[in-house]
Amino acid sequence: MKRVLVSDSMASEGIEIFRNTPGIEVDVITKHTPEELKELVSGYDGLVVRSSSKITKEIIGSAEKLSVIGRAGAGVDNIDVAAASKKGIVVMNTPGGNTITTGEHAIAMMLSLARKIPQATASMKAGKWEKSRFMGNEYCNKTLGIIGIGRIGTVVADRAKGLKMNVLAYDPFIAPEAAEKMGITLATLDEIYGSADFISVHVPKSKETTGMINAEAFAKMKKGVFIINCARGGIVSEKDLYEALVSGKVAGAALDVFEEEPTKNMALISQENVICTPHLGASTDEAQTSVAIAIAEQMVDYLLKGEIRYAVNFPSISADLMNAMAPYLNLSEKLGKFHAQIISSGIQEVHIEYSGEILRFDVTPLTIALLKGLLTPILNENVNYINAPIIAQERGINVKESKSSAVGDYRSMITLTLKTAKAVTTTAGALFGLRAPRIVRINDFAVDVVPEGHLLMLYNYDKPGVIGNVGTAIGAANINIARMHWSRVKAKQRAMVVFSTDTPLDEEILKKMKETTNVISVYQLEM
Q: Who's near 162: CB < 8 A, 6+ residues apart?
């Protein structure tokens, strides 16, 4: 039974999905302190949050069973994703669930700002009739500059076109052809600053975007520009915005997000030309129902089937794709695990080459699976698909990928080369049939090794009697040999034999193996 904790208020439709799914048990506990939440999460496999719960490094550290955190919404600012990744916890969000709602809120804020609707409403509720005081601005034929054309920015652009606005957009990651299809004009930031009547921000918050709309940016803008921020607090510098409002450079600002939430910046929000809402971008009944259902379905699929969708720290893999990729994921992990046990010093570099039909897939999950297999025998600790790349990075391992369209003896092949302080070693794996993994190369030796169970691998001089002597010693220890594969490189007068045994050999027998005439080295592997 998988246990899920919902720690923030969430639409009942999502909670019912958990309750009605066999194998899932759900608790809804929304009133708690950070210390109480730290105690609570230790007994759960999944955690659902919105924006209220702050999932810190300390909370994650106390989560003994936790394997997935689901954010019912797009932003994950309140989750320490790095700490979750390091501990092997999948962090999921629902990026599309509130797209329309947030985009529409930005448009509503822009219209309200230009027509001074909140100020006029407050005036009338105070018993006044100040028609001349609230002269507004039209939107038709005005220029809207959109910074960031993602899902939400695209919605804003579409609605603005319906208002007969000219739309300029800045986004270095969108192709001109895609922008042309949307009916928008790509522009530089400086071009937007210099010509836009309204500027709406829709970029994610990062080191690069924090404070990007600052005094320098305001200096480049047209006098009388309107600023709308329904993205993330801190992208627009509140200090610099305040000064631009007071100076008259900015005619008005509409803010749904703030550097600190709840905001204490009363000097800013009390300005007559500022309208604001308490982070309501995603706050519609439709959006909250949508994200609740989405995150519940995603988490159920992950907890019960291993399907990963909309993870912010792992490539998304649908159920159908997972089924197709499963044999390759298994092969990748086994190849890494096999290779880790035949090296004797720290790994400096990992080079993975993919060739053949495997290239029809995104190979990123395969690389992660290989790293998981590679690091598990070395570290003897919890290494999984989420934290394997982080552990490799922390250990200073340089990971490289390459792809080759050349097809050799196998429809697909994965070749792994490891560089250590002592040597460079290579192994390769392939699938036999559709699902059966095989190790097909170990350095210079062509092999056909089934990577499962207890394996004994010997390098030896290519002399008569070695296999007989080793086989006799194994038999004398009352250990059954299930499979054996022998290979040699005649030019180097070297040979290799890999035994599969029903039980592992003890240290005394291994010592005798190493002392056997013409045996160069012995490795016992657990697969």
A: none
Contact residues for 457 (Cβ-Cβ < 8 A; gap 6+): 342, 442, 496, 497, 498, 499, 522, 523, 524, 525
Residue 499 and residue 313: Cα distance in Å, rounded?
39
**Residue range 412-457, pLDDT digits in tens:** 999 999 999 889 999 999 998 878 999 999 999 999 999 999 999 9
Q: Which residues are catalytic?
A: 232, 261, 279
∠ CA 85-57-256 to the nearest 5 degrees? 90
DSSP 8-state assignment for residue 410: S
Tell me, yes or no, if the pTM score tops 0.85: no
CB within 8 Å of 156: residues ≥ 6 apart: 103, 106, 107, 144, 146, 200, 202
Whole-angstrom distance, CA of residue 179 vs CA of residue 176: 5
Q: Check if the beta carbon of residue 4 is closer than 8 Å to that of residue 299.
A: yes
Q: Are strands 454-461 and 519-526 parallel, antiparallel or unpaired?
A: antiparallel
Give the helix ranges, DSSP H, for 265-387. Answer: 266-269, 285-305, 319-340, 364-379
Whole-angstrom Cα distance, residue 286 to residue 213? 31
Give alpha helix (H) positions in 382-446: 388-394
- Sheet bearing 185-186, strands edge to edge: 185-186, 166-170, 143-147, 198-201, 225-229, 250-255, 274-276
Element (H, E) at 106: helix 99-115
